[in-house]
């Protein structure tokens, strides 16, 4: 290879590395926190332009489904046939198609199952101490139950046939939770393919295996054998996304990274026992065949009701609970332009509804509806449908009119999970000995919060169709931000948590965190990372950095640009900057690409006064400043001992310098001052003399950035006259020095600072408020007296006494594990326990 070619390749390699990594600082400690993100973000193109909007050649695929499914309640098994019409809108020819087989995650040999660490993420706490730690290893009863359920049942899809429109078999290969279908001829651009999949699978018991769907059994119902609630999601093979930025999105489903799907139209026929009530994505198209005339009239009346009306009453639901079906019934639902389909079925459901009106929208009346068993009680009657309506009112202000004809909340075993037009939510009441049902404040908070959160997901990502498998924060973080806005608008006195910057301090200062931009399945603590920290960032951006007017305009622009489309993080970042007119690269870089935290210390404050340069004024002031200094300790002790200074004992030794000190003014200094004034330009002399006359207070404040995350510096100032002031210093003050900065504040001489506090309203999430005040403040706390209580020890057991204890033979019902993971927001590890009830579940 010639030297010039070697040099050229070396240059190209260096350029590529520089482009990928950004320019690296190797000398000194300079850090460019304001380096532009264009070095990191994908290059704009005809599909996604530099403003963050879809490009003129933007495309996405379409998948339409016609499905016939039957529920075998006794066997707890689904059997179905689906016909898919797949339209290739891409510029590429496709030689094969990929489908998602999410139920395969429950196979004992699945990648998720085999790759789960003992005691690690994705379990009900199988170990609290691992072997070899000096304590016995532990397996929770919930984990044992899970293992037994998987031993006793064959979970995962039973794919029975894949055929083309003519009934000819199509070859397919199953790869974990994916299935590749090989085509006899490549599917060319702007052409469609119709094919059919016949399949079945055994429905998982959600309480046993922790899922986003499944059945829940109620053995104590009056009906022989009890009753079930079925929540069905990820229940049919679905098309994998093919996109402009990744091609086929065929990453294995590991449980945490959720889904990204194609939009399409659905026609679904659901056959269930004829005493079941079914809730589903879409609108019911055969109400005359499945509802009574009375129920149909109630549903019609609910469209204009001021409060929710029952469609299926509690009395009707209780009667169905104790009966038996006399056959099967088919419910047919149709949905247009949705990216998924879910449904629920049970004879236990009561059903209420209320119309939500949005004049001028495509769907001017949205039916807000809730389905719940008697176990939901008054809690669901009061708050579920009301929360659905409230959510749509708030979210539509920030995005667009609710885009679908129905919005539903269904109670079941899943703590919280969302799908187009339907959500699964878990909180319930407790049955008391006297037959009444009560609920705690936390259950009330949980229900309102989970309904807001999950209905909010119908906006993000069910309509603004972000890639949850890759970037969880794009749906969970944006939605957590909006659900907290809606929560505070519902009741500001409820402690909605994990959404504001002040709520995330413990996480952002911890050592077990990763950047927000980490792929979903690799995130250590999903709750604070994907929900809380992005939400806190957006609150900070809205209320502190941009202000509500700029933020709300930009956020709504993003939502409307990407409605029914598939945005990436770059599209969000670019849109927010382009629509607000503010360079926010420093903000995205710090909050989303690093694990820095906010800790700005106010180290010292200098109070300065301007010298007049007139020696007759300045020298006297300096003499007084010298006199005001604390007396030298030795001189003070001499006076206390009565030691008389030598010059006082012998006054004859005094001379000229005892009458004239170093501050005595001479004509030399006066002439120098005159000369200084004469040498000034007219404008300089005018400015100087005005400053001398005004004699203002000049305060220099020194700050250090301890946490590493550059932020605006917000000051609360208190003056000696009792007045206060808020000063906002933009984050750009850190542009040339990310470690230490100084700021000059100037006030009239009558305005003297008494106290300076950084972030006085705790709005930036500053991790250490003890270094925020100057002068420093006392740190208030409490101390508690306690009596030592020794922990359990084999050596301390009083066996002689304990052996006399009688065996308690009363049977006690074992309670279920309290840390169920079902849903999309519950913590999966102890480190995630700061996630509050308002953010319901985190599923596997």
TrEMBL record:
Species classification: Bacteria, Pseudomonadati, Pseudomonadota, Alphaproteobacteria, Hyphomonadales
Q: Residue ranges of region Disordered?
A: 803-844
Q: Where is the composition biased (Low complexity)?
A: 828-844
Protein name as annotated = M1 family metallopeptidase
Here the segments flagged for biased composition (Acidic residues) are 808-827
Key word Protease present in the record?
Answer: yes
Q: Which controlled-vocabulary keywords does the entry list?
A: Aminopeptidase, Hydrolase, Protease, Signal
- Entry's EC annotation: 3.4.11.-
Organism, per UniProt? Ponticaulis profundi
Q: Which residues form the signal peptide?
A: 1-20
Presence of the UniProt keyword Hydrolase in the record: yes
